[in-house]
What we know:
The protein has 275 residues and is an alpha+beta fold. It has a single domain, classed as Alpha-Beta Plaits, CATH 3.30.70. The protein has 8 helices and 9 strands. A hairpin with an 8-residue loop joins strand 7 (202-212) and strand 8.
Amino acid sequence: MYNQKKPQLSKGQGLISILVLINHKLFRMKKIYFLLIVILLSSNIFAQEIIAFNPIIVDEDDTEAYEKNNKEYMVKLAQDAVDEKEISGWVLLKKMHGELFPDNDVNYILVSGFESINQLLTRPEWWNKSEEKFGIPIDLISNNNMKWKEIELYNTQNQILSEGEGKFVILNWAKPNNMSKMLEIQNKVENHFKKNMNKYGMTGWGFATAIAPQGKNFSTALFWDVYDSFEGVLSHLNNQAVNIGIADNIKNEFNQIVPDGWDSRVIFQIIATTK
Length: 275
């Protein structure tokens, strides 16, 4: 957003979308969730909540079927879970441009939102209701050949939602050297974006701090910028769009806290999302 230096990419950076366990094989992943906690668009997934990213690698030959199944079946099951207050939101993101670490082969991220860590850990297996709802076993809906990567958990600090439909999102990772100061800066950024987002097609924005994994090679902050067009995200990356008019002192403060620039900035397309 602000720092125009060449991004310094983190070798150990893991990836978001998100605890949406649509494959019966992932039941065993519950143990990982507990370990993670112990060690610790206009998409309505990003609210004042816990965000879980579940990065996925889907073979190129299977992407069309994977997206179709998620749009026809999984998003409806996820919406039922939202309506029942089992989760607060669900989004499927498809990588379009940028490098992801530690595994750049990741081409999708499943994102789930939760009101609390307790809700994350105690939610029912809503994805397993496909046969009850559609008469189709989950085995026939999910892709057994996809690879699930390490889950990432974040805690939302700032958030803007609008009534507009988000179609693309930029995910930005960084390692601020002063998180308290970063929180102050993002309050100022939020005020600026709220006043100007409608004229540039921005439909959502947010800032979150990392819960897990943690370590010297992992990014500690996540920012997202949601737009209603691909032109919007490209303009944003070019320091235009809603970035126009941000006060110089805010930019300077940001660059001091993130002197090496972004760890990574990646454009995703929103494939399916709950309301």
